[in-house]
Amino acid sequence: MGEGLVALTAHEVAMTGASVDEVAEAARSAAGRTRVLAALDTLENLRKGGRIGGAQAMIGSLLSIKPIIEIYGTVDSESKQRTRSRAMQYLVDKVKSVGPLHRLAVVHGEAPDVEEFKEMLEPLAPASGIIVSDVGAVIGAHSGPRLLGVTYQTPN
Question: Which of 26, 33, 70, 145 has its CA 20 to 30 A from that of 6?
Fold first, then answer.
């Protein structure tokens, strides 16, 4: 969805009759203003993919750890929250700390609480509203089910 927000910006600029170079520059600028954060519901898929060990996954599961990741060129650990509700609130607080938004999107992997998460973000939404999208198959295979994420783009 991060790439999707960049593509929307490029489309808007292209529709104004801008040159290819102007559209490309707008896309580069938008990419620098776009962030993706997500809360994983389980560590199991990280274990299966070899990103963490079995002991780490077991302890994380026992403690109900919900890792928060940030994707910006690479995937980095942003935070660790103890419950799903705290993970959701953490994501909302991160978005709130940014200030005004140009675009806002929620991404999820069959998360049953996606509407609740969207409602938490509603007061922060730009005039264009909140885009809701399913996570793709490749990301879903690494993140597992019930992933909840937020993608936002700040103004110029």
Answer: 145
Structural domain includes residue 11: no
HEC string for 65-82:
CEEEEEEECEEEEEEEEC
Q: Please, are residues 126 and 102 in contact by the beta-carbon 8 Å criterion?
A: yes
Q: Which residue has the higher pLDDT, 71 or 15?
A: 15
CA angle, 83 as apex, 116 and 132 as ends, to 5°?
30
Does residue 16 lie in a domain region? no
**Kind of pairing between the strands at 103-108 and 130-134:** parallel
- Is 6 within a domain? no
As for how many domains the chain has, the answer is 1
CATH code of the domain in which 89 resides = 3.30.1180.10
Q: Kindly state the tokens that stand for 101.
A: 């938004």
pTM of the model: 0.84
